[in-house]
Specification:
The complex is a heterodimer of chains A (184) and B (202). Chain A contains seven helices and no strands. Chain A has 184 residues and is an all-alpha fold. In chain B, helix 1 packs across helix 2. The N and C termini of chain B lie far apart (38 Å). Chains A and B meet through helix 1, helix 3 and helix 4 of A and helix 2, helix 3, helix 5, helix 6 and helix 8 of B.
Chain lengths: 184, 202
């Protein structure tokens, strides 16, 4: 019995397009076996409804309230936005670190110079002793027009970033205040 | 007192689920509360019919909504759908619910005895009818619970929640062909398991 049995279920569930549904209907008019099959599907559906839905549930509003209590403060943001946001928040810290490294380069060089001048570690630092003045800041490439104040430029960038970060954080927290006011 | 306290009558909903979802995604909890109201019973019953325990079902339903809230960002209205479907959110919600139900079942498979499940309360009238109806309700409930998880979910979504094949496919993340074969299997199996009750229905 392989003629249209595959389609019978779909026909029963109303999932066939009009053309196919007509073909099935036409076939049903002539095929008792398929009619019986359709009857069986309908009987099963009726029988299944004998099992009632869940009863004795808590009132709807209580359900809603309980869910509300357990919901996180706000829905989590999608991942790319989160990554961008985290990166943005960390930018001042990163720039600070960069600036510190640049400064530290100078500190290390100064320490080496001091040690050398005190006569300590001349064996290890022998080669360096030949050329004592090697401030590491000079190793950094010079930007024409900016002059030697690379550090100042970095400081300026750091300030601007921190400023914009602060203002956007402030704006964001004000936005959320408004949304939160909608809550009961 | 005959007048029951009714819920505030909402006007015919011009606001679609996706409208509410967008507001909820922006952080509007009231919009999400409305979504909960709309889909609470559906979710509870999907889990109930998957697991067989009404108390468990309510807990699991709450869990579903909590999870859906925290993953709300990953739901995209009308994403990847050829024609506009108004059931996108419901399908997505039911997916979370069925997955949660199946996980619960797997965890408690060894401890839950189907025969020991609490009898569902069924308000029947008259002594004979009551016994008969209760017996039949129980037989059907157990038969459905005895189905394998995969076919049971397809059957529940089709026969009890009235989802289209397309929506079932979306909910369970399977091809439509698989929906049809799982349905077919479930129905054949149930007809055999409930053969003695099949003639009784008019």
């Amino acid at each position: 019995m392989n003629h249209i049995t595959e389609w019978l279920q779909a026909y029963y569930d109303g999932e066939l397009n009009d053309r196919r549904a007509e073909r099935v209907a036409a076939h049903l008019a002539t095929c008792a076996a398929c009619r019986e099959e359709l009857e069986a599907l309908a009987s099963l559906s009726d029988l299944l409804q004998a099992a009632p839905p869940a009863a004795d549930l808590m009132p709807g509003e209580r359900f809603v309230a309980q869910v509300g209590l357990q919901m996180a403060r706000r829905p989590t943001r999608p991942l790319p936005e989160r990554a961008l946001l985290t990166g943005w928040m960390l930018a001042p810290a990163l720039l600070l670190a960069l600036w510190a490294i640049v400064r530290a380069g100078g500190l290390v060089a100064d320490t080496v110079l001091i040690l050398l001048s005190l006569g300590i570690g001349t064996e290890v630092l022998g080669p360096l002793a030949a050329n004592p003045s090697l401030p590491w800041a000079e190793v950094l490439p010079e930007i024409p027009g900016v002059g030697l104040n690379l550090q100042l430029s970095l400081l300026l960038l750091l300030s601007l970033t921190t400023w914009s970060w602060l203002t956007s954080w402030w704006a964001r927290s004000r936005n959320h205040q408004r949304v939160d006011q909608l809550e009961v | 007192m005959t007048a029951a306290v009714t819920e505030v009558a909402t006007e015919p909903t011009i606001i679609t689920d996706d409208d509410l979802v967008q507001r909820a995604q922006a952080g509007n909890r009231q919009a999400y509360a409305e979504l909960i109201r709309r889909h609470r019973l559906g979710v509870v019953n999907v889990v109930y019919r998957m697991c067989g325990d009404a108390l468990l079902a309510e807990d699991a339903a709450q869990e579903t909504f909590i999870r859906a809230w925290s993953h709300l960002a990953s739901y995209q209205p009308q994403a990847g759908r050829g024609e506009r479907s108004s059931h996108g959110f419901r399908n997505w919600l039911y997916r979370i619910a069925t997955n949660h139900a199946i996980n619960l079942l797997r965890r408690e498979r060894t401890t839950v005895d189907i025969d020991a499940l609490p009898l569902s309360s069924d308000p029947a009238r008259g002594p004979e009818a009551r016994v008969e109806r209760r017996e039949r309700a129980e037989a059907v409930r157990r038969a459905v619970l005895a189905l394998p998880d995969a076919s049971r979910s397809a059957l529940i979504l089709r026969e009890y929640e009235g989802l289209s094949y397309k929506d079932i496919a979306e909910t369970l993340d399977i091809p439509i062909g698989t929906v049809m074969s799982r349905l077919s299997y479930a129905r054949q199996w149930l007809r055999a398991a409930l053969a003695s009750y099949m003639e009784a229905t008019s």
